[in-house]
Structure to design on (432 residues):
């Protein structure tokens, strides 16, 4: 099953450790424009590698990476390691503390049909193309994707806890989470990580675009290499692995915003009625509460008016998309089929790149966007459960795009992973 390897990470030189707070950055697909502009002001911030700017951003990132290596801004660890990464956090409105425990390593970039790494979500093509170009130019994974493995015996947690007694980085990130990194270089301990994963499938929780970028680059390199063995650096990808059986895995809802309805709002509301019970609500800020825990229920905020939508159970069987029963049961499938396809006339495939359709985690932001006329309609959703993610993955199907928001997000800047042959794990390294 899943083949993982330790890696010789590139990290900021030790002289920058006291400044690590100012060098980390959010993932490329969650960093806001305002955050980007602020981070770009620091010439050493990791944003310059993960979300480069300019007319030729990927080439700019590659040139900057060479400069940073030459000037000793980044240095490569001498020994291969497993990088233990903990995130301590609380959720809004709760005093409960969580700690998501995981580790960073290289994993073979398995094709989807190999059924070793399983996806649960559609991707947006433009974002994949962007990641492919960046990887091809830099040969660097600037941030890790997030994968889940199932280990109900929690065999690795004690090893990770022990490593955390001597962390190398500790910082508070933009989400308010406390991020801590520790390093395991003991070959015998690393072997235990490899052994636990070797009989596991891995569910891709977050980073579908970055992972698909690695897959496409691997295919290109395989085609160009008649002596391909499967052990070349281009076969591997940087991943953050966490135990799916942990109670500290949190998934938050991702709401939908439409900049402009393709039909008049009066017609839209009228067309909803054959499929939904439409109930007006006084306060839009209660929409997330009135749908909480209710299947196939959504909040709609449209032109200053709030509604609760609840699918009529008898129409659920109308869903005729070629997918599995597990996917058809999902709230977001109901939303995308009945609202976007049946009512608004946006076909399933067109939804992936539909202009003006955006995905927003923050509930208050959704209300604000409609109030300020930055969007015409907000669709408020419930979160997807971990059990639903597992069921969909194992069914072999995928959810609508942007279905899950695993919280907190991994940050960039702690560890960079090279897939240049002369910088990859060496055959003489332990655990190779």
């Amino acid at each position: 099953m899943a083949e993982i390897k330790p890696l010789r990470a590139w990290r900021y030189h030790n002289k920058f450790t006291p400044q690590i707070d100012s060098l980390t950055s959010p993932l490329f697909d969650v960093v806001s424009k305002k955050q980007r502009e602020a981070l770009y002001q620091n010439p050493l911030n990791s944003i310059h590698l993960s979300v480069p700017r300019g007319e030729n951003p990927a080439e700019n990132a590659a040139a900057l990476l060479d400069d940073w290596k030459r000037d000793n801004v980044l240095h490569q660890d001498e020994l291969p390691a497993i990088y233990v990464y903990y995130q301590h956090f609380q959720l809004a409105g709760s005093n409960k503390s969580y700690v998501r425990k995981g580790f960073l390593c290289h994993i073979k970039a398995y094709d989807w049909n190999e059924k070793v790494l399983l996806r649960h979500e559609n991707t947006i093509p433009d974002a994949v193309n962007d990641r492919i170009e960046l990887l091809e130019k830099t040969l660097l994974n600037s941030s890790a994707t997030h994968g889940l493995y199932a280990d109900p015996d929690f065999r690795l947690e004690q090893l990770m806890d022990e490593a955390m007694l001597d962390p190398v980085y500790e910082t508070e990130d933009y989400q308010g989470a406390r991020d801590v990194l520790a390093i395991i270089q003991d070959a015998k301990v690393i072997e235990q990580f490899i052994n636990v994963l070797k009989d596991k499938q891995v569910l891709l929780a977050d980073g579908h675009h970055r992972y698909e970028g690695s897959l496409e680059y691997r295919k290109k390199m395989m085609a160009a290499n008649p002596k391909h063995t499967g052990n070349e650096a281009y076969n591997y990808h940087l991943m953050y692995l966490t135990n799916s059986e942990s109670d500290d895995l949190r998934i938050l809802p991702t709401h939908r915003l439409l900049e402009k309805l393709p039909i008049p709002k009066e017609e839209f509301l009228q067309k909803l009625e054959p499929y939904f019970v439409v109930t007006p609500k006084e306060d839009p800020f209660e929409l997330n509460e009135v749908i909480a825990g209710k299947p196939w229920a959504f909040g709609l905020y449209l032109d200053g008016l709030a509604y609760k939508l609840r699918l009529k159970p008898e129409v659920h069987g109308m869903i005729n998309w070629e997918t599995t029963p597990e996917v058809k049961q999902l709230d977001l499938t109901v939303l995308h089929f009945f609202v976007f396809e049946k009512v608004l006339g946006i076909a399933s495939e067109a939804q992936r790149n539909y202009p003006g359709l955006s995905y927003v985690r923050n509930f208050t932001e959704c209300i604000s966007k409609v109030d300020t006329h930055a969007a015409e309609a907000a669709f408020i959703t419930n979160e997807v459960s971990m059990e639903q993610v597992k069921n969909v993955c194992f069914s072999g199907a995928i959810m609508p795009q942007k279905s899950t928001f695993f919280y907190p997000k991994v940050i960039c800047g702690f560890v960079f992973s090279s897939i240049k042959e002369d910088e990859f794990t060496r055959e003489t390294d332990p655990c190779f």
User: Anything to note?
Assistant: The first helix runs from residue 33 to 40. The chain is about 30% helix and 25% strand. The two ends are 17 Å apart (CA to CA).
